[in-house]
């Protein structure tokens, strides 16, 4: 398991390194279950995939800090005249807390949509919603879910 996680992090790091000069970036905030996050992303980091790094604080299920990396893929969904980008994604999320909470690892997956705010004069902005399952691996195997609503600023 440790080799798999190191390999995934290395692929994300090496893949995004060359993409900084040719891709767009975004940063944002979100809130929901299990908590609040700030994130930074790179569009088309490698092989048509976006990569997003997250830092967060979970206030549901114990007070925990966390960090993770998500890989996201845009789906070609026809939403008509509504400017919504639909995507799927997922990745590892590491968390840590004090006392009996200790270290945690979950693998999160989600489907989401982002509504770009160009029609109201803020083309760099977007609001998004993501929901999906979470598989807890450490400290004990279990299932949960993630749900977020947030704002992205693309630059």
Question: What would your notes on this structure say?
Answer:
With 155 residues, the chain is mostly beta strands. The chain is 10% helix and 65% strand. It has one helix at 2-17, and strands spanning 25-33, 35-46, 49-58, 64-75, 84-96, 103-117, 122-138, 142-154. An eight-stranded antiparallel beta barrel has the order 1-2-3-4-5-6-7-8. It starts with a helix and ends with a strand.
Reading the helices and strands in chain order gives HEEEEEEEE
- Continuous helix count: 1
* Whole-angstrom Rg: 16 Å
The quaternary organization reads as: single chain
Largest sheet: 8 strands, antiparallel, barrel
Overall spatial form = elongated
How much is the average pLDDT?
85
What's the arrangement of strands in the largest beta sheet?
Answer: 1-2-3-4-5-6-7-8
Beta-strand content bin: over 45%
The assigned structural class equals mainly beta
């Amino acid at each position: 398991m440790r080799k798999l996680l190191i390999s995934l992090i290395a692929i994300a790091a090496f893949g995004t390194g060359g993409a900084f000069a040719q891709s767009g970036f975004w940063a944002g905030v979100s809130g929901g279950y299990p908590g609040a996050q700030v994130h930074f992303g790179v569009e088309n980091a490698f092989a048509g995939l976006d990569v997003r790094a997250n830092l967060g604080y979970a206030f549901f299920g114990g007070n925990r800090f966390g960090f993770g990396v998500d890989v996201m893929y845009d789906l070609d969904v026809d939403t008509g005249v509504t400017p919504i980008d639909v995507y799927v994604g997922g990745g590892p999320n590491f968390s840590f807390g004090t006392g009996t909470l200790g270290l945690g690892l979950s693998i999160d997956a989600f489907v989401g949509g982002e509504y770009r705010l160009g029609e109201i004069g803020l083309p760099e902005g977007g609001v998004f919603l993501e929901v999906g399952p979470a598989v807890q691996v450490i400290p004990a195997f279990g299932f949960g879910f993630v749900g977020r609503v947030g704002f992205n600023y693309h630059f």
